[in-house]
Amino acid sequence: NIILQDIKKKKNLYLENYYSFKTDGKPVLRWKSDSPMVNKIKEMQEFIGLEVTGKLDSNTLEVMQKPRCGVPDVADFSTFAGQPKWGKRNLTYKILNYTPDMAQVDVDEAIKKAFTVWSKVIPLTFTRVDRGDADILISFAARVHNDFNPFDGPGGTVAHAYAPGNGIGGDAHFDEDEDWTKGSQGSNLFFVAAHEFGHSLGLFHSRHPDSLMYPVYRYFDSKTFRLHQDDINGIQYLYESTDSVEPMKPTEPLPPNTCGPNLTFDAVTTFRGEIMFFKDKYFWRKHPTSREVDFNLISSFWSPLPSDLDAAYEIADKDETFLFKGNEFWVVKGDIILSGYPKKIHDLGFPKGVKKIDAALYNANKGKTYYFVSNKYWSYDERRQSMDKKPKLIKDGFPGIKGKIDAVFQHKRFFYFFRGSRQFEFDPIAKKVTRVLKTNFWFPC
């Protein structure tokens, strides 16, 4: 009896929250074929795509127990009548707080990527701001969180968002009681956010099970994910289309083959505990001990940066990453480019004859950054902010490493020098090459 009562309670709440079912506080005593309860179950079954029986069969109960969006399936947004949409094309968003489940940089990236899903098919831009107000406020909260729409703990409702408008309009809330991730376990923040931002732009739920706007949460493979035509039709009905995007173009670029025998990189650097590999207009990002690899356009992470970077390195103590192209360089913290950049490489002390650098590496033990140019390298003292007067030959400072190199980074005690389709593991203490590896050694090939 207790189990049956619990099922009935959850069923009533589900139909109340998502299908406008009202009991008026009175218990449903009889199960009539035309009762409001049966009609609402049929309505739910039809919308979700189940066999319409009006009964709480196993398939219906299974769907009711799945994680889902908190926005109702059949009711219009109660705050905004008609078809709500933004009256401007340049929208701002602000992340008010972070979940402890993920690194902040991963949250930033997931949110940015989720907005990109929509900006690729409609003529809207989404710009993150850290100060002042924003059109779309993003927050993580548990249970009651000041919007008269409390979350329900782990499972159930994972997030909800509000249609375009002033005040709370457009805002997206994520249930902190969920396990937020960037992978296939728990609740994938990117996919949930992309769904919720569809609501922030004015979309209702879709009946199509392969649609991003389908109310029940599911995980998509990010490498093969396509915005469904139903989603595209809906959002382009509200905001028209972009000329630059074909309707069924994948939201993710197709990556170069990381397992190919001739793989080379433009630059490699550590980045907040992970490794970034740059190639043309793309970059891969992975943790050294994980097989999972994230793949992105450089412009989707740092929109002003050019393609074909020459070099990159990180000063982890300052949480700063330096990125070089030609005679210019940028400094970033997470996905934010610091003000005042780009600057000229000659501001670092290079003579006018140096037009670009090939690779760079920060040696934390010595507090020096090594800049590799052709078959030589320059040493820059980070503490004194000064460059050595003359370069040295690479083969003298790093025995076994000869000629021009493509990229270099440090992992644990070793330096890894990339040249062509090979990389050389170098021990800076013993001053010798310890292993010769394929360039794709870091990838699950």
From TrEMBL:
Note on cofactor: Can bind about 5 Ca(2+) ions per subunit. Binds 2 Zn(2+) ions per subunit.
Active site, renumbered: E196
Binding residue positions for Ca(2+) 2: D135, G169, D171
Motif (Cysteine switch): 67-74
Residues annotated for Ca(2+) 4 binding in this entry: D266, D310, D406
Pfam families tied to this protein: Hemopexin, Peptidase_M10, PG_binding_1
UniProt name for this protein: Collagenase 3
Organism: Chelydra serpentina (Snapping turtle)
